[in-house]
Amino acid sequence: xxxxxxxxxxxxxxxxxxxxxxxxxxxxxxxxxxxxxxxxxxxxxxxxxxxxxxxxxxxxxxxxxxxxxxxxxxxxxxxxxxxxxxxxxxxxxxxxxxxxxxxxxxxxxxxxxxxxxxxxxxxxxxxxxxxxxxxxxxxxxxxxxxxxxxxxxxxxxxxxxxxxxxxxxxxxxxxxxxxxxxxxxxxxxxxxxxxxxxxxxxxxxxxxxxxxxxxxxxxxxxxxxxxxxxxxxxxxxxxxxxxxxxxxxxxxxxxxxxxxxxxxxxxxxxxxxxxxxxxxxxxxx
Length: 285
Ligand SMILES: NC(=O)c1ccc[n+]([C@@H]2O[C@H](COP(=O)([O-])OP(=O)(O)OC[C@H]3O[C@@H](n4cnc5c(N)ncnc54)[C@H](O)[C@@H]3O)[C@@H](O)[C@H]2O)c1
Hints:
Elements: E1 5-9, H1 13-24, E2 28-32, H2 36-55, H3 61-69, E3 71-74, E4 86-89, H4 95-108, E5 114-117, H5 124-129, E6 137-142, E7 151-156, H6 162-174, E8 178-183, H7 190-206, H8 212-223, H9 229-236, H10 238-252, H11 261-268
Parallel strand pairs: 1-2, 1-4, 2-3, 4-5, 5-6, 7-8
Antiparallel strand pairs: 6-7
The structure holds nicotinamide-adenine-dinucleotide.
Residues 9-15, 32-34, 38, 90-93, 118-120, 141-144, 236-237, 240, 275 line the site of nicotinamide-adenine-dinucleotide (NAD).
């Protein structure tokens, strides 16, 4: 099946990026926010990223306008907005919230629509099970920042069929990404490796082993990582990091995945990182 029209739900850090890369590839995108204001903020985020691309000579003004013209923003549920070939949700990492979205999508989208989630860790099979089309439910896990990072993890649940998988693998390739297929276990591959490492970096800070700059420098200078783990937590969002650790902890029932108490405190304080203006670092505008 060829994908011509896509609904992206949740115009935040990831959803705006997903909408942008789809629109740049000539796909018609409906970008749905919590309300119209949320959707407008998402579009403003996309406009800003594209404008930066023009300023850096990476794209023409004409291509920027073409991409923007492919995006329609909406703030409410209705069957016209859901008349798409693919719907991808990128709302916050909350099981109840995502379940509600999948129920709504299953109700309003036509029978052929593939339903995808950008979840970082939740079980794709469980989201499929609450729909009447579990064979058309799949994970499409983009990495941040979406317009730069090439990798897309394609998460195949026990119920996902081959037609859905090949459609999504092809779409990811068509929009210039590198899809990798994997099975549906907590954290998939990328986050199962990366998020416990970030949590361990927070433990080293919590236990006073070193200060935040030192911890980040060890990873940057010693491992050649482009960004230190604490700065990366701020970029991902500490709420998202905590949510993924909770899923790994619960999903595997193994204490090695317990979230660091300092991470919990940061989230309780609203120190979510870059998106809230303060995280492990507080030099965000
Ligand atoms: N941040 C990352 O690096 C990253 C990477 C890969 C995957 N993810 C996953 O992507 C998803 C979104 O993460 P994010 O970092 O973009 O979060 P975010 O908080 O930046 O964005 C979430 C967006 O969803 C909107 N929203 C909330 N409820 C909604 C509703 N009912 N209907 C429509 N929109 C609604 C919010 O207003 C916001 O615009 C999560 O599942 C996360 O785990 C995040």
